[in-house]
Amino acid sequence: MKHLIKLILSTLLLVVMIAGCDTEDLHDMNINPNAVQVIDMNYFFTAAQLGLASNGSSGDNRYTDWRTNINFASLAIQHTASSGANAGEKYFDNDMEPLNAPFQFYYRDALRRTTEILKQTSEGGSMEGRLVNTRQAARIVAVFDYHRLTDWYGSVPYTEANKGLEGIFQPKYDKQKLIYTDLLKELDEACVAFNGSDVDYAGFKKADLIFGGDIAKWKKFGYSLMLRLAMRVSNVDAAMAATYVTKAVAGGTMASNDDNAWIKMSLTPSESTNQNGISRALYPGDGGDWANRLLSKKLVDQLKGTNAASAADDDPRLTIFTQGPIKWTASDLGVVLEADPTKWIGQPTGYDGSMLNTEYGGGSPVTPYEKFPAINTKMLQDDEPYMLMFAAESELLKAEAVVRGIGTVGGTAQSHYDAGVKLAMQMYTPYDASLVVSDAAVTTYLTNYPFAAGTALEQIGTQMWLSKFMMWWEAWSDWRRTGFPVLTATNYPGNATGGTIPVKLVIPAAEAAGNPNYAATSTQPDKMTTKVWWDGGAE
Fold first, then answer.
1. 118 in a domain, yes or no?
2. 267 with 415, same domain?
3. Which burial class, exposed, middle or buried, applies to 400 when counting CB atoms under 10 A from its CB (0-12, 13-18, 19+)?
4. How far apart are CA 367 and CA 214, in angstroms?
5. Which are the contacts of 304, defined by CB distance < 8 A and separation ≥ 6?
6. Is 10 a domain residue?
7. At a CB cut-off of 8 Å and minimum separation 6, what does 90 contact?
8. What pTM, to 2 d.p., does this model score?
9. Do the domain assignments include residue 284?
10. Which domain holds residue 327?
11. Average pLDDT by stretches of 10, the chain with 539 residues
């Protein structure tokens, strides 16, 4: 009875309290005072840009670059060589991390930010009509992310991707042609829609790590990306390529190294978010792959030119990409063991430790980094800016378009080629002020190796390959499309490709097992030997 009376009194008290509250009071009682009520989309925009540099909130910034850019692509396109067992150089399919990492990272991290920005700034979103420039830049960032994903895997989730809040947990895979068609449309619309009178411009400028809010440079970035995508489909859809090559050139692509897209990195506040993941993966003492990712024989021979015994005809990038063989211990990092470039030899592709010992050590153990040139440590500081896209690529693509008669470009193939080579050689000073190539050195090189109509496509493809040092996954895509330079595949025992260079990454096993759309709509067979659409594979 006593408990019943207490219950009745408590109920009456609650009724009185509710009666004394109006609807607004009840609403306020239901709000967590510590919760964020409005999320700044410009914060997401900064995070999305860090995602372009493989840096995100859900993991180590070395994750994707280390596994795929370095441990797969740099080896597959023979800029570097390794004595270890890997998918990029030895073509093993039991080395799945390099093949899976981008799929995991981009959907889990990088694309989440751009998806939310575009959702909130679209029609019906909380920021509809606001953040105009943030929205257009986010569209370009999203295109950059998605084009890489589809280049690597073929068909991937696109129209249904990142829609878990809409109840889509097992998205379908879209055909690469559909994805490319929409990506090019997105770039076309975004570049036109930038607005210098945007009332939210100050926030956009503050959040922009790449161009500091410079709308003209964002447009050049967008049109340069459009040119890349247009040329990437040029072997399989000539009409689409011609249309967008013309649009990109008319819109205005990157024209100088001042237009280049670099993402600013910093030592603080977070090592795993703000530092350069490539540097952390390669610099001696951190990631450790520096000692086993040395310049390949193919790359060194190319840079040393036709007369290996003379430095007079060398590509000036030889002494930018490397200081030569160096010694590494905690006390003598960077001690150069051989300063004469004429004596540098690259590490042969496809060799293991035993093979190196036999050929270079007479059977005795060889320390590879004391024998073969290492990547220049001046390019591997933890706060190095992250290279994303540069003007040299646009000029070389224009040269190719002129040679092949794709779209309306203007100028001559040679003028674009010469400009592209010069821009590529002179773009490394953001790493270190000492990495300078003079105009005279460029002229000497172009005099020694002049543009020739009969070998134009091979020259252009080779220069594109050289220009993508540190951007190895893009060099891999360029090589798959053009076939240049000519690379000799390895045929290491137990490889999974039959001795051919891989042309596709493989979808993670968890995704393959958990998404029923994988078997029906992804690029099949899901193997390293299956070509994507623009490389001559199925649409």
1. yes
2. yes
3. buried
4. 48
5. 314, 315, 318, 341, 342, 344
6. no
7. 350, 490, 492, 494, 495
8. 0.91
9. no
10. 295-379
11. 39 38 46 53 91 74 88 97 94 89 89 93 89 96 97 98 91 98 98 93 94 97 98 98 98 98 91 87 74 93 96 97 85 82 97 96 92 93 95 98 98 98 98 98 98 98 98 98 98 96 96 95 97 96
